[in-house]
Amino acid sequence: MENEQIISIVSGLPYPCVAISMRDFERILCANPEAKAFLGDGIEGRHFYTVFRQPTMIEAIEGAIKSGERKNARVTISENRRDAFYDATCINIAGQYCLVTFQDRSDQEQIQQMRRDFVANVSHELKSPLAALMGFIETLRTVAKDDLKAQERFLGIMESEAQRMNRLVNDLLSLSQVEATARQRPTENIDLHGLIEQTVDILLPAAKARDVVVNFVKQANTVITVKGDSDQLHQVFNNLIENAIKYGAQGGNVTVTLSQPGYLPALRSEGIEVTVSDDGPGIDPVHLPRLAERFYRIDSHRSRQMGGTGLGLAIVKHIISRHRGRLMVDSVMGQGSNFRVLLPYDISIRAKRNDVS
Ligand SMILES: Nc1ncnc2c1ncn2[C@@H]1O[C@H](COP(=O)(O)OP(=O)(O)OP(=O)(O)O)[C@@H](O)[C@H]1O
Ligand SMILES: [Mg+2]
Fold it and tell me: Of 64, 133, 179, 188, which alpha carbon lies 20 to 30 A from 272's?
């Protein structure tokens, strides 16, 4: 086989590939632009030892050269301040060349990492109420055995810890249910006035407990209908209004505004906008990009104290994305926060994704 043939094969491959010549003292014969993107330019002519420094890579290349068999290695390469993960395959070609190809598996690695984080977070969230329950059971059996007053108090705490676990499990179920329906288009015709009014009514006792006034500003004499899933949209507005009541100012105002701005550039279609605003302490901009991540809380102690699981906005984001809408947040410290939900009338138009992560 001639060098030219190998060079044309390597340059034609769509994924990173390097050819090492055994006839030329195991120097690099060529590399395609995809490989040079992370190995650097000017690697041709260098011994492979000076390019691939990781022992696992060197071992795999040497193994393929000596045994003639295919060898694999997993490598981590630092690219622009992030680690990229590759599966490298080393193939001996007719005892003359060693081809090294790379498959990027950073995405799979990231998914696995997210899964590990998720399981760790769930376990952590369940651990503290469980530990509290076990501690109180022990106390009720021993020191508080004959103390009726203490028993009553401990049972109250146990109940609230059990409710917290129940909320967490329900939120996890909601999240997985929303994910399961992510690819199904909602088909119900939803009257948004009615749905939001109902949600506000349900939250009135919570608002009263914090002395908060909830105002619903709607367009008079119009019926605003979108295609959606009523349970899921109820969950969206419930969480946003509940957050505004919980994290806004005690004795403050929460305003829910439903409007039809017409064409929404962010969705590239006609749609509606629901804004939930509070006049609380606001959210520091550093938190905004991560706000809708699972279990992300700004003040986790306060959120837990208020019975929050940190899953609310993650559920909201998934539901809005199923409805082809967008969630946007802006906030001024000391003045309050605005959570804007944009929903298209026609969800068959796919909007450009992104915003709050
Ligand atoms: N209107 C708001 N003002 C200030 N901070 C807010 C507001 N809404 C949400 N946050 C912050 O964002 C975090 C995440 O909210 P999210 O709704 O996801 O979780 P949660 O309210 O803690 O729990 P859950 O909704 O599951 O009961 C909250 O813990 C809070 O710190
Ligand atoms: Mg919440």
Answer: 179
* Tens digits of residue pLDDT in 287-338: 999 999 998 888 878 777 777 889 999 999 999 999 999 999 999 999 999 9
Under 8 Å between Cβ of 227 and 322 = no
Report d(CA 344, CA 357) in Å as an integer: 20
Please tell me the total count of domains within the chain: 3
Q: Tell me 220's DSSP state.
A: T
In short, whether 312's Cβ falls inside 6 Å of ligand 1 is yes
* Alpha-helical segments (H) within 16-103: 33-39, 48-51, 55-67
- pTM of this structure: 0.77
Helix axes 312-322, 230-247, angle to 10 degrees: 140
CA distance 224 to 222: 6
For residue range 221-265, list pLDDT tens digits in order.
788 889 999 999 999 999 999 999 999 999 999 999 999 988 999
Structural domain span for residue 175: 107-180
Residue from 293, 303, 304 to probe ligand 1 pocket by mutation (most atoms less than 8 Å from CB)? 303
Token digits for 337? 């926060």
Ligand 1 atom 28, closest CA: 297
Q: Is the CB of 280 under 6 A from ligand 1?
A: yes
Q: In what order do the strands lie in the sheet with 27-31?
A: 27-31, 17-21, 97-104, 82-93, 71-79
Same domain, 339 and 204: yes
> Which of 104, 139, 158 delimits the end of a domain?
104
